[in-house]
Structures are given as C-alpha cells and as structure tokens.
Write a structure and sequence with these properties.
The complex is a heterodimer of chains A (319) and B (277).
Chain A (H helix, E strand, L loop, with lengths): L1 H9 L1 H6 L3 H40 L18 H7 L2 H33 L5 H13 L2 H11 L6 H9 L12 H28 L4 H9 L4 H29 L3 H7 L8 H11 L3 H26 L9
Chain B lengths: L1 H33 L19 H9 L2 H32 L5 H11 L8 H10 L6 H26 L2 H9 L4 H9 L4 H17 L2 H6 L8 H7 L10 H21 L1 H12 L3
Helix pairs in contact in B: 1-12, 2-12, 3-6, 3-9, 4-6, 6-9, 7-8, 9-13
The chains are: A mainly alpha (319), B mainly alpha (277).
Amino acid sequence: MTTVYDAGRATTPAARGGAAPFRGSLLTRQRRRAAWLFLAPMIVVLSLVAGWPLLRTIYFSFTDATLYDLEYHEFIGLLNFYYLAIDPHWWRAVWNTVFFAVVSVSIETVLGMVIALTLNAHMPGRGLLRAAMLIPWAIPTVVSAQMWGWMYHDLYGVINEIFLFLGLIDQPRAWIADPDLSMYAVIAVDVWKTTPFMTLLILAALQLLPGEVYEAARVDGINPVKVFFKVTLPLIKPALMVAIIFRTLDALRIFDLMYVLTGNSRATASMSVYARQQLVDFQDVGYGSAASTFLFLIIAAFTVIYITVGKVNFDQGSK
Amino acid sequence: MRSRKIIGRVMFYVLVAFIVIYTVFPFYWAIVSSLKAGSGLFQVEFWPANPAWDNYVGVFQGQPFGRNILNSVIVAVSVVVLSLFLAVTASYSLGRIRFRGRTTLLLVVLSVSMFPQVAVLSGMFELIRWLGLYNNLLGLILSYMIFTLPFTVWVLTTFMRELPKELEEAAIVDGASPWVVITRVFLPLMGPALVTTGLLAFIAAWNEFLFALSFTLSNEMRTVPVAIALITGTSQFELPWGNIMAASVIVTVPLLVLVMIFQRKIVSGLTAGAVKG
C-alpha cells in the first residue's frame, strides 16, 4: 500500500497544474491494478461455488456416476441424454415447468398490473398497503407451501369451506391429491406469493411517469382505458418486460413449492424436482446431472434474452 | 354524475379491501390455526374462541426446533457478512474503475445470479463432500454464496456508481489509495445500501431450501425451512397441522418485523436488483 500511496502523493502538483498525461496514465494503471486486486476474492469464491460445480455437473452428465461413490464412474457419452429424451416422465416435467411458468407469470403480470394501478391512485394509507404487499413476498416459500397445504386440506381446509359457502363447488375437493387440480393449486400459491413482487416493480415504474401527460389527457377528456393502453403501457413496457423475464427465470427453476406441497408427484413435478429426485433419491448422479444440464441450457438461453432486454440501461450511470 | 362518482369510489375501496384480504388472509389463517388446540383445529372457525399456546410448546418438544432456528441464524448471518465483505471491494472496482473486461465480468456476475440451483447440485455435492463439509453448517454457508454474492455485488455496484465523483477525486488528490477511498470515504456513505442489501441477502439465505435439504442429514443440522417441510406426525395421514402452523408463524414473524421496519429501503433494493439489471 505504501508505494501506491507515494505514487498518488507525487502526482498531486501535476494534478493541480491541469493537463498531465503522465499522471493520468500512472493513476489509471494503479487503479486498474487495484481493481483486479479488489475483485480477486469475489472471483475466486464465485469460481469455487458456481464455475467449478457447474463444470462438474456438466461433466457428470456424460458419465454413469452414482451418489454412492462419485469417484468411480465411466464416460458414457450422450447415453444419459438419450434416456432423458425417451423418458415420458421427463417430458411431463418439462411440460409441467413450462405450463407453470407461462400460466403463473401471465396471471401475475395482469394481477400485478391491476394491483399496482390501484395502489398508484392517491388515497390514505397507501404506504400501509404497500407494506401489506410485502407479507407474502417475505414469507419463506416452504412456509407458504405448508400454509396453503393446510388451507387446501380436503376435509378440514378453509378453501373448501369458503368455496362451498360461495356456491362455487358443491362438494369438497382434494385440491392437492387430485392430479387434475394439483397443478392449479400450485399455481395459485405461486401467484399469491410472487404477485407482490411484480406489483412492486410495476408500481416503481408507474411512479416515475410524468404527471403532465395524464393532466393533459384528463383535460382532453380521453377515456382512462385508452390512456392506459396508449400512454401508460408503452411507457412502462421496458420495466415490465424485465420484470416478466425475471419472474419467468424464477418460475423455470422452481423447486421448493412443488416439493413441499405435492412431493415428487408426477402431476406437478418441475424439471428441478425431477432432476433432484434422480440425483438424490435414486442416487443416479449421471442421469440427474443430464437433466440439470438441460435445465441450465434453457435458463441460459433465457438469461441471454434477459441481458439483451435489460441492456437498455445496463451500463448507464457508470462513471 | 355525483352518484356515479360515489359508486366509483365505493367500488375502488371494495377492490382495495379485496386486495388486502387476498394478501393477508393466508397468514392470518396460519396464526388462527396455530392457536387452536386438539380437535378445535378441525373446525373452521374464523376467530379462535379459546386461544391456546400448546402448538407453540409442542413444536419445540417434538424436534430440535430451537437448534434449527439457531442454525438458520448462524448460516444466514455468516453468509450475509461474507458476501457484503467480498462485495464491497468488488463493487468499488466494478462501479468506479474503468478497466478492460469490466462489462464481461458484470455480465458473468448477473448470469450466475440466474443459475438454477439444481444445475450445480451434483458438482456442489462433490465439492462439499470433498471438503468434508457434508452435514455441516459451513457447507451451507459456502454453497449459499452462489446466490447471495452475485446479488450483493450487483446491487452495491449500482449504488457505487451513484456516489458523487468529486468525493473520490478529492480523496485521490489528497493522496488516498483505493483501499483508503473505499474504507474511509465510501464505506461511511454506504450504510443504508449495506443494510438493504444485507437484509435481502439474509432473507434469501433464511428461506433457502434445496441446498439445505440436500447437504444436511441429521435433525440437528437442519435449517428452519427444511425442519418445517419435514415435520411429520405419527402417520402420513395425521400431519400435525397445528405444530406446522405454529412453526411457520415463529419463523415468519421476525422476518415480517424486519421487513416492515425497512419497508421503504426493501422496495428500492428490490427494484435496483431486478429492474436496473
């Protein structure tokens, strides 16, 4: 540190004198060196916990490794991927994941928009409402899965009670055990838990909108619905797109909600649930890794989209 | 015209009330259920006539739940401290120094935060076994860095960029090294950002389930989410719902208190983490 300190001090007079290319280059070089030094610990840790395990997982996907003994395995090429491709349970998991992601993110977007527009209106206690929105978001997924599991209970669940009272159903349903209903039950929990996140992001975008536009629209007597589609939606579209992709990525890797609510049930198992079941329950690391790698590739493709869309203001404000 | 306005107003507040009930009811129901003892649990009753604390006592008797809470606290706090420590210096470099490869590095950090956890599961399992950290809280601390570190680096970098340039220039003119700039000039200004980022990372670590489920074995090493997911009754068809609800309320209430206190900061932190990306 001493030399760095001296170098800085020595150039001070030049800095006061104004233009001094020497100072700039020395300082810049010194700062670049410091930059890498400061980044090194983070890069080391990230390589250790992300880079290395990912490479090993991809490697395992070409082997017949088992959890019992990871060391003794043989290279079997693309065999795991072949078995994956012919396993109807795997394709069911892929379909479950995509269906879950598309349906729940769509509902969350619409619902999040409605709630955000409501909360954006001027009214007393808006802050309190925004705080209430954070409750589902802050509750651990496992806890919300258990809470809803209890509410869905076929005999003593409050959902059946309420729905019967409202006349929406004529007899109690087994929301989780019934394969025709369980996916919708899972989606409902996810919507409840993550709509607040969507709402907050949309609300943040709404609050940045210029008020004059709405003033002008009101003076001109333009229909609020038209204002929404012609003015509001285009203006918040970038933020909305990023929020949607962000939620989609989250939904594609979903694990805990299904695992706790419905276990390894085929009707709701996501790709992550399927991969973990192969890996841990069936001890088949090679095959499970192949499934994980496949999921990684899908997420990677989406991440590229996310970064491209998010790039709108990716490097903005850097000094 | 006037009556139409009133109807509109009423409709609006009905909508607001509906939103509030929808968001809050499941948690309210968990509290109500947790206060019902014995067979009272199996009657739908929207207000517990005789609130009882049996479930809250029971949850600590049936399993090492106190130990589970302690585990979660140890793991989450360690992960947050480590991530913030590594992220402060890294975010200074990424946010304030121009060097070749910076954008690439930022993209890599962002991509890591998108990793599906299951994609590193087998590799991480091998690493943790190899380091002798299986069924050990250190293994969880290490593996949790995969999601807390990219997040803290990302948000703190955003924050670093917004600090005034003049402060740093003045310090450099006075002969301060980059290390001094970080610790003496920027760190005191970063208090609020550190609290927000730390809290969000804490919540993520507190809620994590997949790694905690896969890398621990004994009841004593489990974290709270795993313990709650695995609470079992005498038979598969006799889940102790009262206990589960009590446990759920216990782990959620401190979290909610924190969230309510830092409500404003959390919203801005969430937006910085997601939208600015």
